[in-house]
Amino acid sequence: MRINLASVFVDDQDKALRFYTEILGFVKKEDVPITEKFRWITVVSKEEPDGVELVLEPDENPAVGPFKTSLYAQGIPFTSFAVDDVYEEHERLRALGVVFTKDPVSHGQVTLAVFDDTCGNLIQIMQMNEAA
């Protein structure tokens, strides 16, 4: 068994697709109309085009709003993406206008930072640190 799909709930699929591809650098894999209003949109890492797909899931379900609002208010990231260098990625994204709620900080084995994805979520980026 392996992970095939992961979802992030977004308030606007078009805005999310632009942010996740043009800013974060993911690649669109699927974009299929489901209804007149919604699409099945997935993005993948450039480094792993056949890897796990991230679904840009509409947040229309009534249960999603309170869940997202609560996580955001508590400063809890919805998901986490691995990067080789958090400091470098932090600077790259800040230069593109991404707003960070937590600048890079080392926590022993990991260094992480948290940003707003403009679609109602906090997203964490993290790198594994070398053992001392």
Task: Report what the structure shows.
The chain is of the alpha/beta class. 24% of the residues lie in helices and 39% in strands. It has a four-stranded mixed sheet, covered by helices on one side. Strands 5-8-7-6 form a four-stranded mixed sheet. β6 and β7 (110-116) form a beta hairpin.
Short descriptors:
132 residues, alpha/beta, 4-stranded mixed beta sheet, 24% helix
Question: What would a concise description of this structure say?
Answer:
The protein has helices spanning 13-23, 64-74, 86-95; strands spanning 5-10, 27-33, 39-44, 53-58, 79-82, 100-107, 110-116, 122-128.
Spatial extent as radius of gyration:
15 Å
SSE sequence, one letter per element: EHEEEHEHEEE
Distance between the termini: 33 Å
User: Order of strands side by side in the largest beta sheet?
Assistant: 1-4-3-2
The count of helical stretches stands at 3
The largest pleated sheet is described as:
4 strands, mixed
Q: Which spans have pLDDT < 50 for at least 5 consecutive residues?
A: none
Instruction: Supply the helix-strand structural class.
Output: alpha/beta
